[in-house]
């Protein structure tokens, strides 16, 4: 459901991890209404947004949708889909720095600094706009997932065990 104009990482697949598009394709999809909410991340020179055809297909199938969006997307989905919003935050900024380096060993110090600055701003200025906040502490992913499942059950989402 997510779309981006950034370059695909080696471990990613188009139409699986994101709908990868050029900037021009992304802008055309905004104009046509197929990108229903979006944001431009200047320091990454990339657009991120939600691809409506995939979203609508999944909703028609009766699926619950988990969208990894920024505050623009959060507000859009809250208003237009009555979504439950959950802010997932790192235990510390230092733990986030370590995760980012592990995820992309080629990340430059400049890019790392930009990503950390973005995260600090989101925590300070946007976290309070969400319905819930869940801390994803290092080594405790299972606990964060359990907390999210409890929230979804409380909000009456239909969950199936696999």
The string of secondary-structure elements, in order, is: EEHEEHHEHHEH
Q: Would you identify the CATH architecture of the largest domain? A: 3-Layer(aba) Sandwich
Number of strands: 6
Total helices: the number is: 6
Taken as a percent bin, the fraction of beta residues is: 15-25%
Please tell me the overall pLDDT: 94
The CATH class of the largest domain is identified as: Alpha Beta
What oligomeric arrangement do these chains adopt?
Answer: single chain
Q: Estimate percent helicity.
A: 40-55%
Number of domains: 2
| Computed structural class | alpha/beta
Spatial order of strands in the largest sheet = 2-1-4-3
Instruction: Measure the end-to-end span.
Output: 22 Å
Shape: globular
| Weakly predicted, low-confidence segments | none
Q: What's the Cα radius of gyration?
A: 16 Å
Structure description:
The chain is α/β, with parallel strands linked by helices and 162 residues long. The chain folds into 2 domains: 1-68, 2-Layer Sandwich (Guanylate Kinase phosphate binding domain); 84-162, P-loop containing nucleotide triphosphate hydrolases (Rossmann fold), CATH 3.40.50.300. The protein is 44% helix and 17% strand. The chain has helices at 23-32, 52-60, 71-81, 93-103, 109-125, 141-154; strands at 2-4, 19-20, 35-41, 46-51, 86-90, 132-136. The strands form 2 sheets. The protein has a 4-stranded mixed sheet with strand order 2-1-4-3. A hairpin with a 4-residue loop joins strand 3 (35-41) and strand 4 (46-51). Helix 4 packs across helix 5 (109-125). The two termini are 22 Å apart.
